[in-house]
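haha ok so turns out i had the wrong file open the whole time. this is the CORRECT one, sorry everyone. sequence first:
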Amino acid sequence: MVVDGIVVAVSGEKNLTGKIIVHIGLPKTATTTLQSDFFPVFVNDFIEYWGVCQPRGKRGQSNAYFNFYRAVDTGLRVGEVRKELELKIAQGKTVIFSEEMITVSSTTSSTWREKLKNLGNILKGLQYDIVVTVRDPIPALFSYYVELHRDNYSHVRCNIFSYCTYWFQEKELLPCCKCRYCSHFFNNNFGKCLDVHN
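then structure:
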């Protein structure tokens, strides 16, 4: 199968064992495009998509999405989500979950560090793969600045340097770049080596 110029091998047969694929879309790394045009293409009898349905505010999200993300965000009901994932794996199904808010600290619940820890607790002992999309940090930060300034902060006078300082220090935004800092947190929470490729 070819999806937007990318060759993807997808078997029409039931897998002997299922797995969980978690896409952690760092901000400004094409997450919305993957959620709207890529992951849903794979849905069939043996592949379920539990990630964000785009556009986020206009399409209803599934209960599976809400339950999974709530467990990641709060650390509550982890056992219930694990049982549902174990059932899907036992049925030979693959579940794809995609959410960029895992890497953004919440003002009402968890930091991104706590979210990664909660996600690690959900997935511990299960068959899973983590997919992390990255981008060169300079165009990513500028793109993020332009988006937020245009949509929310046009009334605020702020230069790009003070903006970046605010988001990385105050908001604890996980850097959307190819760096050891990012790899360290993923490796600590998932026990797998994060290989970053250009």
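The chain has a mean pLDDT of 77.
again sry for the mixup
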